[in-house]
Amino acid sequence: MTRIVAGAAKGRTIKVPASGTRPTSERVREALFSRLDHLGYVEGCAVLDLYSGSGALGLEAASRGAAFVECVESSRKAAELIRANARALNLRAKVSCMRVESRLAGPSQTAFDVVFLDPPYNLDEERLAAVLARLPGVLAPDGVAVVERSSRSPEPSWPSGFATTDERAFGDTRIFSVSPARLDT
After folding, report:
1. What CATH number does the domain located at 2-180 have?
2. pLDDT averaged over the chain?
3. Domain extents for the chain?
């Protein structure tokens, strides 16, 4: 069972696809969102949830007061489930049923404060690097991108000008936070 950890929908459950997804655990979401909240992200922010799967990350952000949430999921069934969960929880989230690469191909109308990337653990590093190379086109200059990977995966290859700001391990899960590097002058 997957529950929303905090905010307007705290404690309410969401349905998850029967197969093909790996929802981020409550423990990981609690730690991740506690850190993001502490840094001033989420409430009032624009959030992009790539490889959305069950929508757990995007819906958690919506529950915690994100101003705008877009969930991107290529599976039609999973995208419909995210829409149904958002309606059931009375949360606002745009659900885009498309491949992540397609969503990132053109210019974004929104500069996102937070971008979540929770790709399948078996997504190869070259494909992930190609997706990450598109972050500058969607992430606000003072934004943060959060990438979830298997603890057995290497650190992803970040786009030029990005730096790791945090890395944490939770059992089989590693969470990397990255932001555009700021040059102090």
Report:
1. 3.40.50.150
2. 92
3. 2-180
